[in-house]
Amino acid sequence: MNVFWMHRDCRLQDNPALAAAASASAPLCILYIYDHAHLSSDTFHQSHLRFINQGLQCLNTRLNQQGGHVTFRVGHALHVLKQIHNTSPISAIHVNAIVPNHQERSTRAAVRQWVEQLAITWNESPIPGIVSTGRPSVGWAHHWLQDMHKPVPNLPEPLNFVSSAVLCPETLREPHQLSALKYRGERPEAQTGGEIKATSVLEDFLYQRGKDYSSALSSPVTAWHACSRLSPYLAWGHISLRTVFRALDKRQQQLREQKQSRNRSQPNDPWLKSMSAFAARLRWRSHFSQKLHDDPQMQTQNACRAYDGLRESEWREHMFQAWISGRTGFPMVDACMRALHQSGWINFRMRAMLVSFASYTLWLDWKRLAAPLARLFLDYEPGIHYPQLQMQSGTTGVNALRIYNATKQLLDHDPEGQFVRRYVLELHHVPKKYLAEPSSMALQAQVAADCRIGVDYPSPVVDAPDAYKTARLRFSEVRNRETTRKAVTAVYDKHGSRRGRQTISRNKRERKAQTDSTAEDSRAPKTRRTRRCSVCASEDHIKGLRCRAWMLKAHSPNKNCVKEKESLP
């Protein structure tokens, strides 16, 4: 018997491991295990299980139409597989590779060890877009594109399913039936799972909702409609990245043809720009997953170890509780957090603001934020979750400090207060001019708005401007150390932009060649004067290139540095 062991790949289309298992001559068992280690982990929530079950129900219904079914089991994965093997010997186990967290990695390692002992074939299909070993000779971005264009494996027809008499299929398990499920609670506005639903959401985005994607993705007011909303389907494997890319590629080609046939006097259609922006986000998604794949310790350790000890010893539980419950006194932060509790989703910019606010303004260690946020995010995916947490909290060493001003974010992205009033009901009657800073209302205005600060809605838990200055100062102190600069160089060499490495090296070689040529020929014409960055003395900032010092962030932000100013959020 061949076993296709599902995890984050509950779909029929573009499922390499399922296709490989189905193509073998032995009967096929499609297995899903409600793994106790997974159910009880600190990153798993009942909302995840609900979404997974919706996907499993969709898949099982489609398999029933072909005379098959999903085999459900509950328990520790290794014990379950041993029991199945004793009932009906397993000849091969087929899985799709994932970028796992520590719990998932440990579970798979234990199963692989058992498989090797019994000489059972272990077939792990690679992740499209992720370089599994070493670095590709063609460059990471080119390798990613090649993977997206590789042929999609097709399922043979008909499928040769294992008999129900041999292996009882059992049924879906609801939360109340799973005692190992540790974190429970409802997300009433959460999306519905399933491959059919995922395909519908994709089509709706590409042909209906996505027109204003590039201009509307930053605001929580417009992002709910304008963003793809595919993240939970991709995270739990109800649709593949390659399927999304190919549908997008087809749509872009259609838009280019329409542009060529359109009269030049007509205004530009925002569709093409938005689809291009979305394509970049798909590559970006794989880029971050590659980081955790290459360095699994990013889940629990700072990418740049020079920042160890910066926040860890200063945890303040009351600050964390105010943040996680949406009671900080900063309306945009509170609205975003409460939206997550309701739906499990918020747009990327607001996620970045939440982590930035917790990390810099409240000075909380990202490592203790990771699990609570994972439970809140319906689309929790380790490969994106941990690298992004480190990026937004400043511990990578190679990225600009992203210290978001929560008040400014409200004024920029929810100026009318639509989003804030929806989720922070205490502020429903607060006048617009006070909405960004309710604590600035006089007592008379508070009474009129039926919102008493400190009673109905909390006062700000921290002085944000003062916290901003303190955070900047403390990071500057660490950055200016020689040991930090060496550590940052190592991080950049391992995790820096794969698109930019060759460019930086080429620019450096070209500048060196110019210098050598000038030194050899004293009659060479003088170069015109060029403004230089006052910090690193590089002309690259003015020319629009990124010098190595800027890429490594080895110097502090400087008001005269053009690129530094552009990098601020």
From TrEMBL:
Region (Disordered): 252-271, 492-532
Domain of life of the organism encoding this protein: Eukaryota
Record domain Photolyase/cryptochrome alpha/beta: where: 1-130
Pfam families reported for this sequence: DNA_photolyase (PF00875), FAD_binding_7 (PF03441)
Record keywords: Chromophore, FAD, Flavoprotein
Residue spans of biased composition, Basic residues class: 496-511
Organism of origin: Gracilariopsis chorda
PANTHER family membership: CRYPTOCHROME, CRYPTOCHROME CIRCADIAN CLOCK 5 ISOFORM X1
SUPFAM superfamilies per UniProt: Cryptochrome/photolyase FAD-binding domain, Cryptochrome/photolyase, N-terminal domain
UniProt-recorded Gene Ontology molecular function terms: deoxyribodipyrimidine photo-lyase activity; DNA binding; FAD binding
Cofactor annotation: FAD
Gene Ontology terms describing biological process: nucleobase-containing compound metabolic process; response to stress
Family listed: Belongs to the DNA photolyase class-1 family.
Record InterPro entries: Crypto/Photolyase_FAD-like_sf, Crypto/Photolyase_N_sf, Cryptochr/Photolyase_FAD-bd, Cryptochrome/DNA_photolyase_1, DNA_photolyase_1_CS_C, DNA_photolyase_N, Rossmann-like_a/b/a_fold
Binding site for FAD: Y213, F278
Protein name: Cryptochrome-like protein cry2
Coiled-coil intervals: none
Keyword Plastid: no
Cofactor note: Binds 1 FAD per subunit.
